[in-house]
Amino acid sequence: MTILSKSNTTLNSMKREFYSKLIFLALPITIQNLLMNSLSFIDTLMITKVSEEALAAVGLANQMFFLISLFYFGVSSGAAIFVAQYWGAKQIEKLQRTMGIALSLGLLGAFASAFFSFFFPTLIMNIFTQDPIVVAYGVDYLKIVSISYVMTAIVMIYSAALRSTEDSRTPMYISMISLTVNVILNYALILGNFGFPRLEVKGAAIATLIARFLEMMILLIIIYRRKGAVAAPLRILVSFSFDEVKSYFSTCFPVILNEIFWSLGMVFYKIAYARLGTTVIASVNVSQSIEHLFFVVLIGVSNAAAILLGNKIGENKIDLAQKYAYSLIKLVIIIGFIMGLALFFLAPYIPLIFSLSEYVFTITVKSLQMMALLIPMKACTMLIVVGILRSGGDTKFSMMTELAGVWGIGVPLAFIGVLVFKLPIYYIYLLVGLEEFFKGFIGFNRVRSKKWITRLIQEDSQIT
User: Fold this and answer.
1) Cα-based angle 35, 215, 191 (whole degrees, multiple of 5)
2) Taking the domains of the chain in order of start, what are their residue ranges?
3) What angle do CA 191, 197, 203 make, to 5 degrees?
4) I need a labelling partner for 339 at 20 to 30 A (CA). Which of 86, 121, 230, 265 fits?
5) In a structure prediction context, what are the per-residue pLDDT tens digits for the chain, which is 464 residues long?
6) Count of CB atoms within 10 A of residue 306's CB?
């Protein structure tokens, strides 16, 4: 009885330690995501004062950034799987070589997407709309903002590595500076305040470019002055071997493919929604910018969970990682219900601050209420795919689950809802949301099977 009591005391102590670390990591990530989504929210708010065509144009033009940023997320979060486990095992040089692989891949994608967006912006806009005013606004925006893609790649990969080494505060503080600058420049350049010219969508693009450059420079200066684990010398960043590249791609390529095809699915949703007209796309941009604000806590918890579970697996504490996974699922479902209720009841009030026509306002409120109903299940699937399965290296299964949900259920239902049943946008959200229930069911069974846990690293007799 005494042994059992001691065992329970030890377990409870470990749980307290885990949750305190979870809060320590999740809070800065949550604040950072809140700031980033607040920027999107404020951008949308300012652009609505230009015109609904300008709002639609920026939303559609940003689909290119959405695609490339999720590619970066795939590259960086794939690398973070290794970085978290290497950090848990204190294998620093291997951690840094993994960063080198991720940076090489991320920059390759950044230069390619920047080139395409800069030289072929009209082609990109014509994928979504034939409205000449929307296309013209979108072209102006893309030619400027495309230059920031390279800076974003560097920021995302270094930030992910910092968080995987249990430093989520530094990226948060730097984002606070960058986003503050972005908001001030938006206010000055979009609407022509503080004596600046009124540049409208061009102003939004210039503000983003300047803020991204500032964010990249501050981040790199701080990292390399501190000389921590993430401050990898160039000679180590480029010293990765073929076997390390092969190991990286074996685990991370499914993550990258997952993000690319998931983001393409989101683009196809926008293509479907655009068939409902410019006013609907304006509503979609407003609705999604508001919805994202209610997901920041869940994003923070999911990313922190991936880091901590990866650390535990790196420490070879497999059974403990499984127990924590169950506890985390319960936690995010509760948070998801709270966020969903909050969004449902606040839906008639938040859009009031935007300059929307009566029709756009009405469908936005109804859309937000439909989105609110789906938040608990979205929270669960986000944690399972991003936080649990990836932390254990189970990237192929998570990819297949995600893509089956998006391309097998979500995208077909979006086009069926628009083209066949001609449903209003708020009912299409519910229809598309069926993919979340599929992913949640499949994902939870995978977690329960314990097949998601793989220790990706080998013991190193010499710790660098």
Assistant:
1) 65
2) 12-449
3) 60
4) 265
5) 455 555 556 556 667 777 788 888 888 878 877 776 666 667 677 787 788 788 788 877 777 777 788 788 788 877 888 888 788 778 888 889 999 999 999 999 999 999 999 999 899 888 877 888 888 888 998 999 899 999 989 998 999 899 888 888 898 899 889 888 988 998 899 888 888 989 888 998 899 899 999 999 999 999 999 988 889 888 888 888 888 888 888 887 888 888 788 878 888 998 899 889 888 988 998 898 889 888 888 888 998 898 889 888 878 888 888 989 999 999 999 999 999 999 999 999 999 988 788 999 999 999 999 999 999 999 999 999 988 998 888 888 988 999 999 999 999 999 999 999 999 999 999 999 999 999 999 999 999 998 998 877 665 444 33
6) 27
| Tokens, residue 407 | 């391309």
Q: What is the pTM of this model?
A: 0.73
CA 36/CA 21 separation, integer angstroms: 23
* Identity of the amino acid at 354: F
For residue 206, give every residue at least 6 positions away whose Cβ sits within 8 Å of its Cβ, in sequence order, or none: 144, 185, 189, 199
Q: At what angle do helices 242-274 and 121-128 cross, to 10 degrees?
A: 50
Contact 230, 99 (CB under 8 A): yes
CB 284 within 8 A of CB 59: yes
Cα 340 → chain centroid = 19
CA-wise closest residue to 381 among 320, 417, 310, 434: 434
